[in-house]
Amino acid sequence: MEEIDAESSRQKTKPFLRWAGGKIRTANFLEEHLPQSFTNGNRYYEPFLGAGSLFFRMNTSKATLSDNNKDLIECYKAIKKRPDLIARYLKQHLSNNCKDYYYKMREKYNVSNPSITKAALFIYLNKTSFNGIWRVNKEGFYNVPYGYKEPPSLPTKDDLLNLSNILSKAKIIHKNYKEAVKDAKEGDFIYFDPPYPPLNGTSYFTHYTKEGFDKKNHAELASVAKMLNRKGCYIMISNADVPYIRYLYKDDFYIHELEVVRLIRADGKRYKVQELVITNYEV
């Protein structure tokens, strides 16, 4: 088992979002466990995109990025299309930022249609919310409280232009993970990073979409991974270290352990927890 030190984690391109369960702290470990035979001639899939930490680490010219969170995907598309305009809106949000302004913008966000303006709001709310959580209620409305009292660190125009350049090579789609990988072929590489099951009764579980992701969903994901394994794809999966997850992948997969500091409880404190990186190839 390897312990991940947040201070030693490095990134080639910094993700622009805060995301619960994000892989900034584990990016080095993931990079060390990439399939050695994967080349840029094949396609990389990341069907639970989130903050995209591994994608931004990889130098791949063929990528399909997807997520079941429509607003997240619309934000990525907007950065790809108009990083300059998003930078202008973020500058306005930063100059007005305070608790009252946050709640006004949250209300505006929840009644807005997809647009460049809403994409900038997505980033602003994400960077100023409590602990960077993205949570919606059963109706699909974003409901995270205000978290920052100091000016947030929003991506600059240069940051956004760089992100746009990287994303210009990627196919960005709003689909569930099953649909997103159905065209994957032998030699392609798929990285699954689903919402984790709770570690215990005090785990801080968040809903990234109104549908959630339960035990049945994890079993279905394991079935998809096994199907892709039979097709000859390279597969990497991040997940919590709980008996049920180990059981799902005990055959035909290699299980690697690591420790990482995460926010896992509602008291706002961070704890060391053990996670799994599961592959269908030896490292």
- Average pLDDT over all residues: 87
The CATH C-level class name of the largest domain: Alpha Beta
Beta-strand residue percentage? 15-25%
> How many beta-strand segments?
8
The helix/strand series, from N terminus to C terminus, equals EHEHEHHHHHEHEHEHEE
**So how many helices?**
10
Major beta-sheet overview: 8 strands, mixed
Q: What is the CATH architecture descriptor of the largest domain?
A: 3-Layer(aba) Sandwich
Whole-number count of domains? 2
CATH topology of the largest domain: Rossmann fold
Derived from helix and strand composition plus strand pairing, the structural class reads alpha/beta
Unreliable stretches covering 5 or more consecutive residues: 1-11, 201-207
Oligomer: single chain
Q: Portion of residues in helices?
A: 25-40%
Distance between the termini: 14 Å
Shape: globular
**Sheet with the most strands: spatial strand order:** 1-7-8-6-5-2-3-4
Q: Assign the CATH superfamily of the largest domain.
A: Vaccinia Virus protein VP39
